[in-house]
Amino acid sequence: MGWISPGRLNRLGMLNMNRRNVDYIARYNERSAYPLVDNKLKTKLAVAEYGVKTPKLLQVVQQQHEISHFREMAEDLGGFAIKPAKGSGGKGITVITGRDQDNYVKASGARIGSTELQRHLTNILAGLYSLAGTPDVAIVESLVESSPALAKYSYQGVPDIRIVVFRGYPVMAMLRLATKASDGKANLHQGAIGVGLDIGTGRSLNAVQFNRPVTLHPDTGLAIENIRIEAWDQMLEMASRCYEATGLGYMGVDLVVDANEGPLLLELNARPGLAIQMANGRGLLPRLRTIEDLKRPHFTPQDRAEYAMESFATS
Amino acid sequence: MTSRSRLPFFIGVFLLIAAGIVLAVWRHLELGIPWLAGEQRPVWMIEARIDFDGNDEPVVASLHVPDQPPGFRILSEQAASPGYGFSILEKSGSRRAEWTKRLVTGPQTLYFKAQFIPDDTAQSPSPKREPKARRVFWEEPEATAVQEILAQAEERSSTPESMTRELIRLMQPDTRTQNTTLLVTDEDYLDLLVDMLNHSGIPARTADGLKLRDARRRQSLMPFLQIYDGDQWLTFDPETAAQGIPDNLLLWRQGSASLLDVVGGDNSEVSFSMLRQTVPALQLMTMELKTNGLGLISFYELPIEEQSMFRMLLLLPLGALIVAFMRIVIGIRTSGTFMPVLIAVAFVQTTLIPGLIAFLSVVSIGLVMRGYLSSLNLLLVSRISALIILVIFITAGLSIIGYQMGFNTGMTVTFFPMVIIAWTIERMSILWEEEGAREVIVQGAGSLFVAICAYLAMSAPLAGHLTFNFPELHLTILGLILLMGQYTGYKLSELVRFTPMKAYD
C-alpha cells in the first residue's frame, strides 16, 4: 500500500476532507439552505425560478393512502423514475422504462409487479432512504433520455456530470460513467468511472475507477480520451445559476444531458466529494483560492462561467 | 466571507488546557491527591495500652492523647475496651481519652489506637494566652544553691534558649559542683530543672515523647523539657541539652500536667506499641478529606453509588477524545460516530476478550436475523423495534447458554447497550445491501479498532484514577477536542487514498 507525502499533496493543491468541512462547507454554506438541496422537490421548485431545467415532475406521492391509487395514476405513463425527495447518493431511485402487461420493466430489464413498486413507495415515505431517517415523499419524474453521444460510454444508467461550483464559479467538473461493477449507478464508491473534464472546453482529461487511472471503459471498451461534452458553456452557466437559486457557496451540481431537452439538473449536493480531484488529476485548492482572492466577483452567471472557462482551462 | 480571526478561539482553547493542568497541579500540591493510583504513604499506627487493677468501685481512667503534635497529623483515633464507656474530652487545654465503668474488679486492660501521618509542615498551635513563669519558693540551703547556679548560667548566656542549655550543662553529673549535688536527686531531676527555670523567669514545663521505631512493643515515653521563648514552646533534651524535636519523635504529651489518671484503680501503667504501615495515598487523602473543608470539589463526597456512576461517566470524555482523534487525524471510518465509545464502555465492564466474543456473536446473529426482517419489508421504526427485541433475545440466550456451559463471562453480554447494538446491526445491514460486504468489514473493523483503543485507554488504571480524582483535567480534554475541530490538515488515511495523485505531480 503506497502513500503520498503531505508535502506533495500540498504542492498539488489537493483539498482534503477536514479542510473542505471547516474552510469551505462550514464557512460558505448556510445551514438554512441545506433543506433546499437535501430535498429534491424543493430544489426543483427553487431552481425553476432561475431558469434551470430539471426532469419533468409527473407526480408527488405524499401520503400512504395515495400509494394504492398509484397504479391508476401511472396508467398512461410510459417510462418514469421514482425518487425519494430526501435521498442521497442515488439511493432508492427506481427507473421504470416501460410496461410489460401488468408488470413494470426496470432499467436493468428486470420486471417487477405493482405490489413491489407500492412497497418501494411505502419504504420511501417511511424514510428508509432519507438522510436522517425522517419521513419523506416520493417524486415521480419523467425519464431522462441520455443523448446517444454520451450514453454509449456508459454501461446501462445515464452518465451524469458533476460540477463543483464555488461562490457561483464552476471550478471543476467530471463525467461519471456507470459500469458493471457499479451496478449501472453513477456512483464512484461503487466503481463508476470518473472522467475529469476540462472546464475550458468540456473535453475529457483523464479517468479513474476505484481511484486508479483507466483509459478504456471496462465494459463498453471505448476509449475515454476523446469525449467532448456538447453545449458545455450552457451547462457551466446553468451550474453557475444554481448559486443564485440556493445561496450555497460550495456545492456540487449534478447535470445530465437529455437527448430532447438538453442539459437538465438532477440534484444539488451541499457536501460534494473529493474524488473529483483524482478524476481531474489536479487539486481544487488553487482554483478555490483564485476565486477567494477575486477583488470584484462577477454578477451574472454568464460572466462567471466565462471567467471560469478562461481561468481554469487546462490546455 | 467570514474570515474572522481565530486568535480569540486559540486563546480560549489555551486557557482551557492551561486551566485544567494548573488546577490539577494545584490540587495535587494542596490536597496531596497523588498522580499515580498505587502511590503509598507511611503511617504510624500507635497503640497505648493501659493496665490497672480494679478494686470494686467505679472507675474513671483518663489518658492524655496528642492534640496536634508537631511534625504529625492525626489520621484516625479509636479505643478498644469492652464494657467501658469511652469519649474524648477537651479539658483545660488537655485532650484526654476517658474510659468509665460502674464496677470494676481485677486486672483491666484498655487500648487506645491512633494513626499518625508524618508531615513536616504540621505545627503545634501557639498558646492562646502567653504562659507566665511560675513562682517557686525554695528553702534554705537549696535557695542559695539555686541562686548560685542560676547566676552562673545566666552569666554565660544571653537568651532563654542559651540559658536553658547552660543550665542543663551545669546540672550534668560530670560538671556538677557542690551546689548541684545538694539539689539533684535522680528522680526529680527534670522537675528541678523546670522549677529552676521558672524561678529565673523563663516559663518551662515537661513533655513526653515517643520514639517511633517500627514494630516495637512495650515502649515508654521519654521526658523532654520545654521552655517558652516568648513566641513558641521550644523542646530540649534534658540530658544532652540538644534543642528541637529529634526525627521520628512524637510528642505524646505537651502542656498537660498528667499523662494518665485512674480513679478507682491501682497499679496503673501505660505502655506503647507501634507499627509503621503504608497506606495508599489516595485512601489517605479521602480519609483526611472528611475532616478537611477542602474536599468540596471532590466526588468522594457523593454516595458510593453515584461515585461509581461518575467513575464511568468521567471516562467517556477520554473515549470521545480518542474517537475524535481517530476520525479527524487518522481517518478511520466507523459505523456510527460514537458507537465505538459505547462499546468500549461495555468492554470496560466485560473485559476485552469475552466482550469481543460476546459483541461479535450478538452482531452476527443479529445480522442473520435482520436479513430475514428485510425480506419482510417492514417500516423502518417497526423494523428497528423488532431488532431491539431480537437483540435482547439473543443476549438473554447467550447469557443462559454461556451460564449453563459454565462460562460466567456469558453473563457480561448484558452490559452492551441494546439500542446501540440494534442500530449497529441495522446500519451494517443497510451498508451490506448498498455498498457490499467489503465496506461492512472496513467499517466494522474500524469501529472495533477504535473501540479497542478507547477501551485500552479507558481501562488503564491511571486513566480511571486521573479522570476521577482530577475532574478538572476534562477541561484539558475539552480544549484538545476543540483544537482538533480546527484541524484542516490531511488525514493519515487520505495520504493513502490520494496516492494515485503521484502520477500528476
Summarize the structure.
With 315 residues, chain A is α+β, with helices and mostly antiparallel strands. Chain A is built from twelve helices and 13 strands.
Description:
The complex is a heterodimer of chains A (315) and B (505). With 315 residues, chain A is an alpha+beta fold. Chain A has twelve helices and 13 strands. In chain A, the strands form two sheets. Chain A has a seven-stranded antiparallel beta sheet with strand order 11-10-9-8-7-12-13. A six-stranded antiparallel beta sheet of chain A has the order 1-6-2-3-4-5. In chain A, strand 7 (160-166) and strand 8 (169-177) form a beta hairpin. The longest helix of chain A is centred in the last third of the chain and has 15 residues, at 232-246. In chain B, strands 1, 2, 3, 4, 6, 10 and 11 form a seven-stranded antiparallel beta sheet that branches. In chain B, strands 8-7-5-9 form a four-stranded antiparallel beta sheet. Chain B is elongated, with a radius of gyration of 36 Å. The relative contact order of chain B is 0.13. At the A-B interface, helix 1, helix 2 and helix 7 of A face helix 16 of B.
